[in-house]
Specification:
- The structure holds three protein chains of three kinds.
- Chain A is built from 13 helices and no strands.
- Chain A is mainly alpha-helical.
- In chain A, helix 9 packs across helix 10.
- By secondary structure, chain B is an alpha/beta fold.
- Helices cover 36% and strands 26% of the residues of chain B.
- In chain B, helix 3 packs parallel to helix 5 and helix 6 packs across helix 18.
- Chain C has a single domain, classed as MetI-like fold (Orthogonal Bundle), CATH 1.10.3720.
- Chain C contains ten helices and no strands.
- Chain C is elongated and about 80 Å long.
- Classes of the chains: A mainly alpha, B alpha/beta, C mainly alpha.
- Chains in contact: A-B, A-C, B-C.
């Protein structure tokens, strides 16, 4: 286990290097002249050249990559081409918003999805199971902006229970903030619930039908006791790994949900920077999101190993 | 007193147990014997009133010490299970919760009985396990230790009925013997009526007071074990006894060429630091049947696969007719490859599920001709040629595998436990086919089995392996009737065959 | 037949029945939208691009079944026309991703050893990079076109398909029937291929659903079809500004996407279920 942790920790800098190279390479592929894009079609060639020099675009790419990565590591992330503000503060501020939204969604997702999965598993092949399984399957297939738009029409436009924007006014209390985040969080939750519930259900069914559950029942335990003492424990491992996978999907879903609910998060920022060809913002936002993904993948992997004694104590190597 | 009276069980209308009646007095043991599909496991589960979904008792009564088990309301059924029933299933590993320490699981069993957690150590001692096992997780125990833990849980209460459903399947013979000895040593202390469910008539006959033989869901014969084994009345029991190979039974004495066909010298294979084969040397003569026996982990399968050119690389040399063979089958030339073929253990995995039997055999023949002759050779009915493996029984699948092994007119066939997945009655026919074809073609077999009696019936010479080494080898008659190495003696004992030399000393 | 067999058979028949219903519903939805994508000019009551300043924001009903948008364009006709762009991107992307992934997965699974090790490490590295971010980066920077969308989506699918094909290949490779072929010296790939066919089919169906998902999302983000096109994702994006005035203009394309992806999901699930219960 310790060896595994060390091995995984060792891959972090390597992956960071790979992700940063990929991000940098992608931004290098920008067709056309960045300086020309920024200044617009009417600008003179002289001012375009001047801007190119000012941005350092005339130097070789390896030098610019080294400068950029060095700057990133020391906290100097440059200035936004279009907004003229320091990228560091901008990206971290937007990241904070996104983490709040993702956090609310995850806090909702984990108990709901795991609970539904357990319920479906314990009552498998009954009506409740069918509804949960088919419902989860359907919502998991529909893009989050589609569910989001339907939620908006029903709950914000028709019923007027929730606001249509996700950003609460400055200085709002936590409940108001949560009220604004409810619909975007819900569309993310609907996207991810099915997958988690299905995995938890499968683990629960296997556990309910397992010889050890049968043996416990034959020893005189009630069904409820068997579920509480044995099935629950055995369902935590699939639950944790499914939640880990879905946390990544949840972060990916931020881009379109933030756009739909006009929320100033890092997904919306990434998209805007890509459209504006605002390279410093684009690079920083992509790298920060890439790192966040990596941390989640790593965390899920470690959690999975800590939860299962068979893996933790080295009987299974996977 | 357990009384089963006219019990019938059906799965969604399909009757699988018909009108079965028997009774067992406390402290007595009753053996239920049957092959796969006989309904023995269903009967065992019905005794605890724990049939899988879809199953239902359609007629009859089960009475345990006056309690009508089938009529108990749920609450009382639970109380009855807690106080009077104990069940030990096959595959102990899966009967223990993988996420809970052994001690916690035993404590749970004790709590149901209203006994303190502190009794865990005493419970473990009863099944001859050290107290520190309580801190382990099930996967950290061997199969035998796991089964002991399950037995310990069964002993937490004072059961009136103990159901043992194939309690030793999947365990090596010596471990099986330890477990059964343990149960039998505790028998008096438990004082329960014991039902032992098994496919092994000889084993049940040795251990039980009474025996019931199940065939197609009916109890076709019942009586004291000694009588059923010595004077079976029902033809099925007789066939079952006849088809089970026995050490010491009449066997054909065949001559074979002594010129060596295949020689293995100093073969070594390792997984990491663990040596699976440690300097193994072996010769197989032309037309000779060499039986390879040993427990799981002894290296016998690794040796057989190495001969065929499968598995990992390692030291040592293999020669065929004096010419050295590359260790990997991929580097052997086509003509050599043809000369060594193999019959695998698992009938379900050994045939390509996407192909018909005809395609499987045609591809094995290469040039395509003679599929019908090949099938006939393995006594495979012609109408089976155009079906896929999923439609075949286990025995039929192994016959296809045998036919395929003969396709290239090999000089040596490596048979890796070819009959261990088959019922005794099917096994006999497959063994006969293997013997007949050997006699007809003069092929050599390297025949691996954990079943010493099967090896005795077929092999000319026997090689005994333990811990990656060959510990004893010689003519089958000598090795299996007058073994010298303690490991071989232990193997025979565990399988219930008292070696003759020893017998002279004891009696 | 033993008792366990009997229950198993019953359970299989029952689950098979359920999968058959799901499969028919799913296939019907896919078929319906495919027909619409091919024949919408014949089916649409109006020209989806025709503007009518006098008929802006008409509510559903009357001459316009699903109402009109801010330019007075017929929502129903635009919904029908929107099936085509999505179904121009998703199928080629799926085919390309599945073919590449299957080839890579088979190679890794059958060759094993160092080749397998290298392939898997590269796939791991690619998989750790979030697909959405990569997609946004590449489409935004490489420009918008059907080809770019197809390539980006196929690229994101390749590692996913490769992993499951490799896993299925590894399972088959260890089976005795493959070893029997190795012993006599035949092509192991030829033996394995028919047995991983179902895995590839399930993968292809699941990825097809994901491809629709991805194509719709890209259009919604403004990275797919140009604004103003009847594409579903783009329509939701364009019309969300008039959400309170004309909710039908976003609901129609949104429900169109939902019905197609749910149809595909039902099909994929039924195929997977049938294979697991076979």
């Amino acid at each position: 286990m310790k060896g595994f942790l060390l091995r995984r920790a060792a891959t972090v800098p390597l992956t960071l290097l790979g992700v940063s190279l990929l991000v940098f390479a992608a931004t290098e592929l920008v067709p056309g002249d960045v300086a020309r894009t920024i200044l617009g079609r009417e600008a003179s060639q002289a001012s375009v050249t001047a801007l190119r020099e000012q941005l350092g675009l005339d130097r070789p790419w390896i030098q610019r990559y080294a400068d950029w990565l060095g700057g990133f590591l020391t906290g100097d992330w440059g200035e936004s081409y279009t907004l003229g503000v320091p990228v560091h503060d901008l990206v971290l501020d937007r990241l904070g918003h996104s983490l709040l939204l993702a956090g609310v969604a995850f806090a909702l997702l984990a108990p709901v999805a795991v609970g539904l999965g357990l319920w479906a598993g314990v009552r498998h092949d009954r009506a409740a199971d069918r509804v949960i399984s088919v419902g989860g399957l359907a919502f998991g297939a529909v893009p989050e902006f589609v569910t989001g738009v339907i939620l908006l029409v029903v709950f914000a436009v028709k019923l007027r229970w929730f606001p249509s924007g996700a950003q609460a006014p400055e200085g709002s209390g936590p409940l108001i903030v949560l009220w604004h985040l409810a619909l975007p969080a819900l569309s993310l939750v609907l996207l991810c619930t099915g997958y988690v519930a299905r995995h938890v259900r499968a683990g629960t069914v296997a556990s309910v039908e397992s010889p050890y559950a049968r043996a416990a029942e034959l020893r005189g335990l009630t069904r409820g006791q068997v579920v509480r003492r044995h099935v629950l424990r055995n369902s935590t491992v699939p639950a944790a790994s499914a939640l880990g996978v879905q946390l990544q999907f949840l972060l990916g879903g931020l881009v379109s949900v933030e756009l739909l609910f006009t929320y100033p998060g890092i997904g919306a920022l990434l998209l805007q920077a890509a459209v504006d060809k605002d390279l410093p913002v684009l690079q920083a936002a992509a790298l920060v999101l890439g790192l966040l993904y990596m941390v989640i993948v790593l965390g899920a992997d470690v959690a999975y190993r800590l939860l299962d004694p068979r893996v933790r104590l080295g009987a299974v190597t996977s | 007193m357990i009384t089963v009276d006219g019990l019938s069980v059906a799965y969604q209308g399909v009757a699988v147990v018909h009108d079965v009646s028997f009774s067992i007095a406390p402290g007595r043991t009753y053996g239920l014997v049957g092959e796969s599909g006989s309904g023995k496991t269903t009967l065992g589960r019905a005794l605890g009133r724990h049939l899988p979904s879809g199953g239902a008792v359609t007629a009859g009564r089960i009475e345990v010490d006056g309690a009508d088990v089938l009529a108990l309301p749920p609450r009382e059924l639970r109380a009855w299970r807690a106080s009077a029933l104990a069940v030990v299933h096959q595959e102990a590993g899966s009967a223990l919760d993988p996420t809970m320490r052994v001690g916690a699981q035993l404590a749970e069993a004790l709590r149901i009985q209203g006994r303190p957690r502190g009794d865990v150590t005493g419970l473990l001692a009863k099944v001859r396990l050290p107290g520190e096992v309580a801190r382990r997780y099930p996967h950290q125990l061997s199969g035998g230790q796991q089964q002991r833990v399950v037995i310990a849980a069964a002993l937490a209460g004072r059961p009136r009925l103990l159901v043992l459903d194939e309690p030793t399947s999947g365990l090596d013979a010596t471990v099986e013997r330890e477990i059964l000895n343990l149960i039998w040593a505790l028998r008096a202390e438990i004082g329960a009526a014991i039902v032992l469910i098994s496919h092994d008539l000889a084993l049940v006959g040795r251990l039980c007071d009474d025996v019931g033989v199940l065939y197609a869901g009916r109890l076709v014969e019942e009586g004291p074990a000694a009588r059923v084994l010595s004077e079976p009345r029902h033809p099925y029991t007789r066939a079952l006894l006849d088809s089970a190979p026995r050490i010491g039974a009449e066997r054909a004495h065949r001559g074979h060429d002594v010129t060596p066909l295949l020689e293995v010298r100093g073969l070594t294979r390792a997984y990491g630091k663990t040596k699976v084969l440690d300097d193994v040397s072996l010769a197989i003569g032309r037309g000779e049947i060499v039986g390879l026996v040993g427990e799981s982990g002894s290296g016998k399968t690794t040796l057989a696969r190495a001969v065929a050119g499968l598995g990992r690389r390692g030291g040592g040399a293999i020669t065929l007719d004096g010419a050295e063979l590359p260790t990997e089958v991929g580097r052997r030339d086509p003509a050599t490859r043809r000369r060594i073929s193999m019959v695998f253990q698992d009938p379900d995995a050994s045939l390509n599920p996407s192909h018909t039997v005809r395609t499987i055999l045609t591809r094995a023949l290469g040039d395509g001709g003679g599929v019908a002759e090949l099938a006939a050779l393995a006594a495979l009915e012609p109408h089976l040629l155009d079906v896929r493996p999923s439609r075949l029984s286990g025995g039929q699948k192994q016959r296809v595998a045998i036919a395929r092994a003969f396709a290239g007119r090999p000089d040596l066939i490596v048979c890796d436990e070819p009959v261990s997945a088959l019922d005794v009655s099917v096994q006999a026919g497959v063994l006969r086919t293997l013997a007949d074809q050997q006699a007809r073609t003069g092929v050599s077999y390297l025949f691996i089995s954990h079943d010493l009696a099967v090896v005795y019936q077929l092999a000319d010479r026997v090689v005994v392996m333990s811990g990656g080494r060959i510990v004893e080898e010689g003519p089958a008659e000598r090795i299996l009737r007058e073994p010298r190495h303690p490991y071989t003696i232990g193997l025979l004992r565990a399988a219930g065959h008292e070696p003759s030399q020893r017998r002279r000393h004891v009696h | 037949m033993s008792a366990a067999d009997a229950t198993a058979v019953r359970a299989v028949t029952r689950t098979r029945g359920r999968f058959r219903v799901a499969l028919s519903v799913g296939v019907a939805l896919i078929a319906a939208w495919t027909v619409v994508a091919a024949l919408w000019p014949a089916l649409a009551p109006y020209d989806p691009e025709a503007q009518d300043p006098l008929a802006r924001f008409l509510a559903p009903g009357g001459a316009h079944l699903l109402g009109t948008d801010q330019f007075g364009r017929d929502t129903f006709s635009r919904m029908l026309a929107g099936a085509r762009p999505v179904l121009q991107v998703a199928p080629p992307a799926t085919v390309l991703g599945v073919l590449l992934g299957t080839a890579i997965g088979l190679a890794a699974g059958t060759l094993g050893g160092l080749v397998d090790e290298i392939i898997m490490r590269v796939l791991d590295a690619v998989a750790i990079f979030p697909a959405v971010i990569a997609t946004v980066l590449f489409v935004a920077l490489a420009g918008r076109s059907v080809t770019v969308m197809v390539l980006v989506i196929a690229g994101a699918f390749t590692p996913i398909v490769a992993r499951s094909v490799r896993a299925a290949t590894l399972v088959e490779r260890e089976k005795a029937y493959v070893e029997a072929v190795r012993l006599r010296g035949g092509s192991t790939v030829r033996e394995i291929l028919p047995n991983i066919g179902p895995t590839v089919l399930v993968e292809a169906t699941s990825r097809f659903g994901d491809a629709i998902f991805a194509a719709a999302t890209l259009s919604f983000l403004g990275l797919g079809q140009p604004p103003g096109s009847p594409d579903w994702g783009a329509s939701v994006s364009d019309n969300r500004l008039w959400l309170t005035v004309a909710p039908w203009t976003v609901l129609a394309p949104a429900l169109a996407i939902a019905s197609l992806v749910v149809g595909i999901a039902l099909t994929a699930d039924a195929l997977r279920g049938r294979r697991e219960h076979a």
